[in-house]
Automatic annotation (TrEMBL):
Reactions mediated catalytically: guanosine(37) in tRNA + S-adenosyl-L-methionine = N(1)-methylguanosine(37) in tRNA + S-adenosyl-L-homocysteine + H(+)
Gene Ontology MF terms: tRNA (guanine(37)-N1)-methyltransferase activity
Signal peptide positions on this chain: none
Enzyme Commission identifier(s): 2.1.1.228
Domain tRNA methyltransferase TRMD/TRM10-type: 1-226
Family indicated by similarity: Belongs to the RNA methyltransferase TrmD family.
Localisation: Cytoplasm
Organism: Pseudoxanthomonas dokdonensis
One cellular component term from this protein's GO annotations in UniProt: cytosol
GO biological process terms, semicolon-separated: tRNA N1-guanine methylation
Protein name: tRNA (guanine-N(1)-)-methyltransferase
Keyword tRNA processing: yes
Residues that hold S-adenosyl-L-methionine according to the record: 113, 133-138
Oligomer and partners: Homodimer.
Amino acid sequence: MRIDVVSLFPEFIAQSAAVGVVGRAQQRDLLDVHGWNPRDYAQGGYRRVDDRPFGGGPGMVMMIEPLQACLRAAREADARPAPVFYLSPQGAPLTQTRVRQLAAMPRFILLCGRYEGVDERVLAAEVDAEISIGDYVLSGGELAAAVVIDAVARLQDGALNDAESAVQDSFEGDGLLDCPHYTHPASHPLGEVPAVLRSGDHAAIARWRRMQALGRTWLRRPDLLDEAALSKADAQLLAQ
Ligand code: ADE
């Protein structure tokens, strides 16, 4: 899949997309991330991309013309249709369900705002949806774009080395939080690895992990249990 990112800091996007799972997904040709700088499409010697807000008030607003020209160039770089998503705290909260939808698209464009935001007319004319990564305010959309790209990249077939691990993650599959994980040494001043994990009894290990996932979700994020895919076996485990 292809993701084009319109940002005043395309180097931030390029760097964050060059490492880890996202970098590997790009090397494996599962994902193609391209940065586009609206400043390259701005007019005049100063290559101005922002201006003062009508009605007064603090901060600057990103102007229509450079953004529109930049979006057009990004769109035309590939023949496949590309919906545009604007990263903003006003958007719909990003969930794993939304990430799965995005990961199944052949391509999309992420628009990152800076300053006070983007001229509303660009949003109305060019943007298909707004995405928020949480109820807090970042100084720009770039970190949020990097979050979207990471979450989407790891769902591409072949991006993860252990194909199972995406399914076992928190939220993937059943909508529960993840169970705890341990590695060597089994015995350490910080604590012992639970005996069941060393028992070799795979059914008992699976039951223990499921119990932990259910218990943690109940304690930490009970809101998730309403939507989680719980089975009769889960009810039996909880009744034990
Ligand atoms: N830009 C600024 N804050 C943001 C947020 N919380 N989510 C997405 N984009 C943003």
